[in-house]
């Protein structure tokens, strides 16, 4: 364990055109320097890249019971995998995940997911599988599932099911209801249903899936957030994506800005592109790298989608078009434009800010939203 003093530099870049921005202070910065965060020690957990994992093969028993295989685009073909693959250094694991190694074996992917999430640093008191079984038995023991409304944080949110069968859809709803009971601080989280649905594909039962999603929710790793849990956090990440799009995809950004009345409304859907509109075979590959590398890869992949969209349309084609809906349709049919391997290759070819710098940019945007009084869904 290492403690370091964190001196926060000025946030990189301004907000993209058309976005609410952090107002500069008198000395010219955006209010994201040391005056906001101070230089108090931050606990940083240093994990050696040579650390190895002991994998329990029983962790994937029963995986697939929640899947409607008739609806899956294609069955995943089991392939021989080196026995020592999960004992390799973290850097090599990242490379293997980017190349789609987990897709070669359903059981391997299930083991990797469970082991990776168990390695996530999270709050000391985080609900686990036994807690889920206890709460679920009390909530659903006598009353039917229909007697329990979904949590308020899912209001107006879609619920992709990713080829889950009826048992899987029921499990998805039960897990979300229990999350609502055990994480009352969550007020808005539109991507949570998608993440639970994806995890159910590779979980041995509801309780294991709940424990794993709970660890992602309760993550307390420095400069890392797996799941936005409030409207403020969601809007701040959308503004951050707009900043990055303006810097890394200027042509696409300019095209969308010229064709839409509210570019922020278009970019507010960026996470839904990844964990709702992408086909399952693409979304699960995104999930592979996301668990290993965190939210930064989501920005990369969404930017790669934006670049590809720019190559597929012209300004004249977008005249009078609902750009938000057109982008959603483009992502849903992404296989017609680019393979998942090529998409990830292009995503990782984008040289982004560091994770810390992106976090600082998010905090700057969060502060700007708070100053504007935007902290909850308008009109709720």
Automatic annotation (TrEMBL):
Q: Protein name, please?
A: TBC24 protein
The record's section on Pfam families has: RabGAP-TBC (PF00566)
By which gene is this protein encoded?
Tbc1d24_0
Q: Where is this region: Disordered?
A: 1-38
Q: Name one GO molecular function term.
A: GTPase activator activity
Q: Which residues form the Rab-GAP TBC domain?
A: 103-294
């Amino acid at each position: 364990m290492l403690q370091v003093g964190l001196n926060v530099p000025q946030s990189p870049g301004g907000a993209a055109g058309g976005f609410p921005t952090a107002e500069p202070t008198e000395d010219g910065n955006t209010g994201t320097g040391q005056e906001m965060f101070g230089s108090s020690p931050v606990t940083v957990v240093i994990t050696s890249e040579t650390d190895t994992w002991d994998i329990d093969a029983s962790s994937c028993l029963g995986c697939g019971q929640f899947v409607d295989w008739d609806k899956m685009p294609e069955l995943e073909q089991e392939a021989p995998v080196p026995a020592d693959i999960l004992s390799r250094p973290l850097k090599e694991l990242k490379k293997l995940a980017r190349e789609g190694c987990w897709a070669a074996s359903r059981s391997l992917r299930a083991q990797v997911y469970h082991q990776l999430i168990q390695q996530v640093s999270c709050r000391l008191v985080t609900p686990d599988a036994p807690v889920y079984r206890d709460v679920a038995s009390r909530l659903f023991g006598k009353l039917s599932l229909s007697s329990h409304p979904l949590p308020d944080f899912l209001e107006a949110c879609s619920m992709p099911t990713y080829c889950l069968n009826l048992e899987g859809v029921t499990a998805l709803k039960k897990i979300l209801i229990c999350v609502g009971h055990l994480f009352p601080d969550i007020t808005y989280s539109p991507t949570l249903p998608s993440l639970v649905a994806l995890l159910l594909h590779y979980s041995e039962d509801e309780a294991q899936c709940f424990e794993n999603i709970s660890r992602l929710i309760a993550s307390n790793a420095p400069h890392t957030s797996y799941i936005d849990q409030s409207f403020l956090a969601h809007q701040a990440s959308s503004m951050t994506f707009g900043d990055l799009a303006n810097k890394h995809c200027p042509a696409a950004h300019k095209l969308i800005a010229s064709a839409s009345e509210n570019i922020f409304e278009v970019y507010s859907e960026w996470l839904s592109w990844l964990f709702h509109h992408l086909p399952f075979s693409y979304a699960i590959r995104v999930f592979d790298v996301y668990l290993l590398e965190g939210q930064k890869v989501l920005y990369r992949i969404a930017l790669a989608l934006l670049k590809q969209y720019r190559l597929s349309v012209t300004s004249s084609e977008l005249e009078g078009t609902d750009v938000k809906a057109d982008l959603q349709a483009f992502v849903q049919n992404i296989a017609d434009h680019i393979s998942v391997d090529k998409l990830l290759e292009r995503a990782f070819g984008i040289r982004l800010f560091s994770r810390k710098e992106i976090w600082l940019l998010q905090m700057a945007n969060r502060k700007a939203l708070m100053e504007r009084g935007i902290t909850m869904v308008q009109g709720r």
